[in-house]
Design brief:
The chain has 295 residues and is an alpha/beta fold. The strands form two sheets. Strands 5-4-1-6-7 form a five-stranded parallel β-sheet, sandwiched between helices. It has a two-stranded antiparallel sheet with strand order 2-3. It is globular, with a radius of gyration of 33 Å. The termini are far apart. 27% of the residues are buried.
């Protein structure tokens, strides 16, 4: 038998049920925070930061230039003393005026602000940006460079800058050198990339022809640079080829040749990826990681 409530009682029961069962709010998931756009790390950050902020960087430069200055006059008075490699010394030393040869970038002028801009903008080197930086004429002298070069000039020693800055940057470069307090005796003080040397065929950016040009007029007492190519032409830019290029000159390091640190760029880097700049940054980085020694 079925049991039915009167209609009025049924309605009241339903209303009571609604009153005693509150409606649960619908849960709304919080909005996920927007993830910041991923920015690839720049492998040059530590090198540039070290170059700009580490006191050790400055002390290495001071130590190098002070040591060279302490040895310079002895080299001057030794008429047989010469700092040009056998392939560059094409003229006998007799009656030649004394000189010192210095590279410019990361040897006497500090271009780390340009490198810092590349790190902050996370982009790679390009000729247009580099030329624009050079034309700012604002690179500072590196520690010890002004004192050494002025000492040389004071003692009648010509100061010659051989640089792979393009020849059309000569006026900006000479102005920057002067602004930084470095001695400049004239346009021939700067031998940039593109300098024509009669009878010598330029090989890429190698400096051999320009050193031979200096050899025609000077006895070179010392050379300064941050790359092996600042001292001798490198026939094969591989790790082994670079070692062979300097093997015969190791006794000259710290006496005739003075090498300065540059972890931010140089021919050492492409030697790690077969000099193939057409490879992607990822491919180049992978080969550099593979070149690391763990033992």
């Amino acid at each position: 038998m079925s049991f039915r409530l009167p209609t009025t009682l049924l309605a009241l029961a339903l209303l009571a049920g609604c009153a005693t069962t509150p409606r649960q709010p619908v849960a709304v998931a919080p909005a996920a925070p927007t993830a910041p756009a991923a920015v690839a790390a720049n492998d040059n950050l530590n090198a540039v930061a070290w170059s700009q902020t580490a006191i050790e960087h400055d002390l290495i430069y001071l130590q190098t230039y002070r040591d060279a200055q302490a040895r310079l006059l002895a080299a001057l008075h030794d008429r047989h003393w010469d700092a040009l490699g056998k392939g560059d010394r094409t003229t006998p030393l007799k009656d030649l005026r004394p000189a010192v040869i210095l590279d410019i970038d990361e040897t006497v002028l500090d271009n780390s602000p340009f490198a810092a801009r590349m790190v902050q903008g996370n982009h790679e080197y390009n000729e247009a940006d580099w030329a624009a930086w050079c034309r700012e004429e604002s690179a500072r002298a590196l520690p010890g460079a002004v004192e050494f070069t002025r000492f040389a000039e004071k003692h009648g020693i010509a100061v010659i800058y051989i640089s792979n800055r393009a020849k059309d940057l000569d006026q900006a470069t000479l102005a920057n050198l002067r602004n930084a307090g470095l001695p400049v005796s004239g346009p021939q003080s700067f031998l940039g990339l593109g300098t024509v040397v009669d009878g010598c065929e330029q090989a890429g950016s190698e400096k051999g022809c320009r050193r031979q040009l200096v050899a025609q007029h000077y006895r070179v007492l010392m050379q300064f640079g941050d790359q092996i190519g600042d001292f001798v032409d490198v026939l094969a830019n591989t790790a082994d080829g670079r070692r062979k290029a300097v093997a015969d000159y190791l006794p000259w390091i710290g006496t005739r040749w003075f090498v300065l640190p540059n972890p931010t760029y140089g021919s050492w880097e492409p030697a790690l990826f077969n000099n193939d700049w057409s490879a992607s940054p990822e491919q180049r980085r992978r080969q550099k990681v593979e070149a690391l020694r763990t033992q």
